[in-house]
Design brief:
single chain, mainly alpha, two-stranded antiparallel sheet, 490 residues, 1% strand
């Protein structure tokens, strides 16, 4: 049974429990709801919670534990000679999972039958060719051990999903029946429901933390695999980025410094465009613009944030790049050789970041108490002096936050860089040369021709981890600055 249908059935049981729980509670009080300890809705909610919460907890736990169990069981089936030199069992298991997912796709598309997908007579070469035709990511050669492991992986997953479906439905029905049994006039349903809702809210608040932990762990494990295959010193201090997809990584140079330089250089150009324009726009909208002008101008600015980044990338490629080339190319100053350059991507990215700075800064400036402005005017300050010496210092923490949000958005941008800045990884101060960023190379490495067991593919996770650490340090530093400022003014 598909997961969505299982969830819908559990929800239907919970809804039925809510209705029947109310009716049973009122019936136990002789039809007089005033004889109940709690309102009838609490009795219905108690049955619904008993039917849905344990079932969902089991479902989540099963979905987390089953992959670990299946991976451990299938990895024991892989012979040692299938782990190639320079690879590891974890990387081979990644190939197995991709092959299993690919088998699901080609079976669903009718390219092969389910019986053939599970058959011992299935030809690895034929299956590999069909996987490539279906657009699935596979290695250059699908071997017999990998195919057998993928088949076992699919069978074990299918069996586990069937058992999970039965267990979840049984637990939901048992909770439904137990909740109905509790629906008596003297049952303290309100207390139970309120404690249950509180536990649910705590769990919801913990999702963000658990998600962050999951993201970090997924990066850490693959980064460790990369550094087992490639020296960390060459990665962090190398001055050249030249991955080779033909070998096993021995001829590749994977120095991250050119990518970091391109990331920061393009981000600095973008912030140099977005911060002054966005901040001045925010000051005008909050302090000078009439309500009529503000009601028109602010939504128009925020429209920029809703434009897809691919559209900005096309704008950089087709409009801004040729325009800059006309003035700074061979027909102009001779500084620019092609339309793809740091300046092209930086200018377009800066336009994209303007609403991030202006909208947030405008809200922060408007939140400054009017009493501070009135006090400044009472001391004889002009409007401009009040803005410079009172309003902006009071709003500075929020403005710093807006700038940091824009900086994080700039560092993580991909499409504008790919289309506007080119793909050259170089260390240069010339803003009219093509460069690339960490995010652009993450995409290219994961979609290239490299085997996933090679450093050329795993380097994407090391790049992501490096970018994560840099962004985290930037946010910690900004938080320190904001706290220090607030201590001075409070």
């Amino acid at each position: 049974m598909p997961l969505l249908w299982l969830i819908l059935i559990v929800l239907a049981i919970a809804v039925a429990g809510y209705v029947l729980g109310r009716q049973r509670a009122v019936a136990s009080a002789g039809g007089d709801s005033r004889q109940l300890h709690s309102l009838p809705s609490y009795y219905g909610s108690n049955v619904a919670l008993k039917a849905i919460v344990p079932a969902f907890l089991l479902l989540i736990a099963w979905l987390l534990i089953q992959p670990l169990y299946v991976n451990n069981a299938v990895s024991g089936m892989i012979p040692e000679n299938s782990v190639r030199e320079g690879s590891s069992l974890g990387l081979v298991m990644a190939e197995v999972r991709r092959a299993a997912d690919g088998l699901d796709v080609i079976v669903g598309q009718g390219m092969i039958t389910e019986d053939y997908a599970r058959s011992d007579e299935a030809d690895p070469a034929q299956i590999g060719e069909q996987l490539r035709e279906a657009g699935q990511v596979v290695t250059s050669e699908l071997t017999q051990p990998i195919l057998r492991a993928a088949q076992s992986y699919r069978v074990m997953n299918a069996t586990g999903n069937m058992i999970m479906t039965v267990a979840v439905l049984i637990l939901s029905v048992l909770g439904f029946l137990y909740g109905l049994k509790e629906s008596q006039a003297d049952f303290r349903a309100r207390n139970v429901v309120e404690h249950g809702v509180r536990a649910i809210l705590v769990g919801a608040a913990s999702i963000a933390i658990l998600t962050t932990v999951g993201i970090v762990l997924s990066l850490v494990f693959n980064t460790i695999e990369f550094f087992r295959l490639y020296p960390a010193a060459d990665f962090f201090f190398g001055l050249n980025w030249a991955p080779s997809f033909s070998g096993r990584g021995g001829s590749s140079e994977l120095g991250v410094l050119p990518l970091l330089w391109g990331t920061f250089y393009i981000s600095i150009v973008a912030l140099a465009v977005a911060v002054p324009i966005g901040l001045f726009a925010a000051i005008y909208l909050s302090e000078y613009a009439s309500p009529r002008v503000r009601a028109f101008a602010k939504p128009m600015l925020e429209v920029l944030a809703g434009i897809p980044t691919i559209v900005y990338g096309l704008f950089a490629l087709l409009t801004v790049g040729p325009l800059l080339l006309k003035f700074f190319g061979d027909d102009g100053l001779g500084w620019m050789q092609a339309g793809t350059a740091v300046m092209t991507a930086g200018l377009v990215m800066g336009i994209m970041l303007i609403p991030f700075v202006s909208s947030l800064s405008d809200d922060i400036i408007n939140s400054v108490p009017q009493a501070m402005r009135d006090g400044s005017y009472g001391l004889g300050a002009t409007k401009s002096e009040t803005i410079r010496q009172v309003v902006l210092p009071a709003a500075l923490p929020g403005i710093v936050g807006a700038i940091l949000l824009a900086a994080s958005r700039a560092i993580g941008e991909t499409m504008i860089v790919v289309l506007g800045a080119g793909a050259a990884a170089r260390l240069s101060l010339n803003p009219f040369e093509a460069m690339t960023t960490v995010t652009a190379k993450i995409v290219s490495q994961l979609t290239g021709d490299a085997d996933f067991a090679s450093p050329e593919a795993l380097v994407a996770f090391a790049l992501g981890m490096t970018l994560f650490v840099i962004t985290l340090c930037l946010n910690i530093f900004a938080l320190y600055i904001v706290r220090k400022y607030r201590e001075q003014y409070e």
